[in-house]
Design goal:
Blueprint: E1 8-16, E2 19-28, E3 35-38, E4 62-65, E5 74-75, H1 83-96, E6 102-107, H2 109-120, E7 125-131, H3 145-148, H4 154-166, H5 173-183, H6 186-202, H7 205-211, E8 216-221, H8 230-235, E9 239-243, H9 250-253, H10 255-271
Parallel strand pairs: 3-4, 3-6, 6-7, 7-8, 8-9
Antiparallel strand pairs: 1-2, 2-4, 2-5
Helix pairs in contact: 1-2, 2-7, 4-5, 4-6
Length: 272
């Protein structure tokens, strides 16, 4: 299609205190404010590849990459992959790509990673679109299973987790579950999930999200419109984006609506 600028793959080796990571990413250069995307647990950078379909964003640099232990990215020590480790990786990738200020998007685990990244260096962030990222203990409906359905064997837990998600009645759950074995290493699940639960329970995430000094959007699927904190977000001036015909995975269930809302948010935040 004319006018679409494709994303180019890249690999980036990192050594983080003796932990070797090979980051697999996709990137597009451009002249506008960069767009940085962080995927959720059990997903990959390709969740965001359809950004090229947004003509209004065709001038923007784009960065997305697979988190260590996910997709095509590797990690020499899967036990090292906490959310804090993912923030460290994000900083290194941004430095390697020469990205200073940017729009930030994160889904689920990526939303939590993005929140900590933005909290640590808010001057670099132009806007933050949080797609059902963790901001409260109730958001651990997937990650808390590492406790509620504990299993001594990483492979055994991962298989049982996949089966439970596959049987969910929420939009796109079976699609998500079927792809899990191809998108995340079982050995990375426990350290990631335990870190997410710890931060959600004790990390003051809501206070940190509300204190961020730039435009913020919280996006959620209509099936999750009972989240207890949505009225608080609205009261505090956070833009709420409810995506119809969707649950936790709007990029699978209703991508056109998701992209329309994200594009409008990016453009609007630059005019604020």
């Amino acid at each position: 299609m004319p006018g679409l600028t494709k994303l180019e793959p890249f690999t980036l080796p990192l050594d983080l205190d003796g932990v070797h990571v090979e980051v697999a990413g996709m990137y597009r250069s451009g002249s506008g404010t960069p767009l940085v995307f962080l995927h959720g647990f059990g997903s990959t950078k390709e969740d965001y590849a359809d950004v090229i379909q947004q003509a209004e964003l065709s001038d923007r640099p784009v960065l997305a990459y697979d988190a260590p232990g996910c997709g095509a990215s590797t990690c020499s020590d899967l036990n090292a992959i906490s959310v804090h480790f993912l923030v460290w990786v994000a900083k290194e990738v941004l430095t390697a790509k020469g990205i200073d200020r940017f729009h930030l998007v994160g889904h689920s685990m990526g939303g939590l990673t993005a929140l900590l990244l933005a909290d640590q260096d808010p001057a670099r962030v132009v806007s933050f679109a949080d797609i059902e990222g963790n901001v409260a203990p109730e958001d651990c409906f997937l990650s808390r299973q590492i406790i509620s359905h504990s299993h001594p064997d990483p492979d055994g837990f991962f298989k049982d987790f996949q089966d439970r998600v596959w049987k969910s009645r929420f939009y796109s759950s079976s699609l998500y579950a079927a792809s899990l074995p191809h998108k995340v290493r079982p050995g990375a699940v426990r350290p990631i999930f335990e870190s997410m639960v710890e931060l959600s329970d004790h990390g003051n995430l809501m206070d940190r999200f509300l204190a961020l000094p730039f435009p913020r959007m919280y996006m959620y699927g209509v099936q999750n419109n009972t989240l207890s904190y949505l009225p608080l977000l609205a009261e505090k001036g956070i833009e709420l984006a409810e995506i119809s015909r969707s649950g936790h995975f709007p990029m699978y269930s209703n991508a056109p609506e998701m992209w329309d809302r994200l594009t409008a948010f990016f453009l609007g935040s630059e005019q604020a």
